[in-house]
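Hello forum,

I keep getting stuck at the same step: I have a sequence, I want structure tokens, and every attempt I make locally crashes halfway through. Rather than fight my setup again tonight, could one of you with a working pipeline run this one for me? It's a single chain of 337 residues.
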Amino acid sequence: LGSCKLGKFSNQESSVEIKDSVREKHVYIIQSGCGRVNDNVIELFILIQACRMGSAKRITVVTPLFPYSRQSERSQKKRLPQHQIGTEIMSSLLQTNDQQPLPQGTFAQSFMGMETDGGYRQWCARAGTLVAHLLQAAGADHLIAMDLHDPQYQGFFQIPVDLIYAEPSIIQWIRSEIPGWRQAVVVSPDAGGAKRATSICNKLNLDFALIHKEDVGGTRESMGLVGEVEGRPAIILDDMIDSGSTIGLASEVLKRHGATEIYAIAVHGVFSGPALEIINKSPVTAVACTNSVPQDEFRARCPKLRTIDIAPMIGEIIRRTFNGESVTQLFVHDEQL
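Reply #2:
Ran it on my machine without issues. Output:
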């Protein structure tokens, strides 16, 4: 394990200094897109360039959470200020009138399909594409990323990209940590996550349910459930928990449909804004995330959080790529397990 010194100059420019020789060595740089994302990304670029100038033989960047991977044109239009999310989701979770459809408010409508104003179409910068180009320009030779939010970003690289998946670790956690998991129903909180949820359903031989939007009286929208969860545990699967809005709304829907226990599992736990407060007040029994983002601080503020350790898997993937072994074989599921 090499050492490096990261810091700031007096004018707040990032400073990176490598303490060990990297000449003719295969260097693995591990940096997740979390915390001070902009500072971390700039430090990553400078560190790659420093290794390149230090005559490293090969540079592999390992990003469990690829930075700016959510900034496709479609996903940006659905992301709203955190104070608006917190106010409306918290009010929905605290409602006591069972006849009132969920969710209410402008965020709920945006969450299920934002309506654009008439006239000129708004355009969004594709920052994820820019980050992909900058990684290559800095000198990276290989990228390892886990469960990209928008998988199309893989096509923007001209260097080899290995996509890895937390699915084996998630399956192992379900088997070991959820009592009565064989009677559970796996729930996708939106249509976009159905493929991920059904993959785990097939491997565990569980039933599947889907939460979708539906019109109420032609003037409002609420969340509906396709599938049966009454009297059974429900497992919500998503790729990322950011504002906590999806988990908060989905758990309330499942509770109203009679789920006995509600578990939420996500690959990346970002927990920005009021996410932890929403989770604490929601009917969710436990929320499990991988440590692609450090979870210690979040767990101290939310007793419902559980951590799925992916460090052994990352270590094995680094070993396999260094020795030229297959990475895909690591994710071949054995139906006999």
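The longest helix spans residues 37-53. If your local run keeps crashing, start a new thread with the error log.
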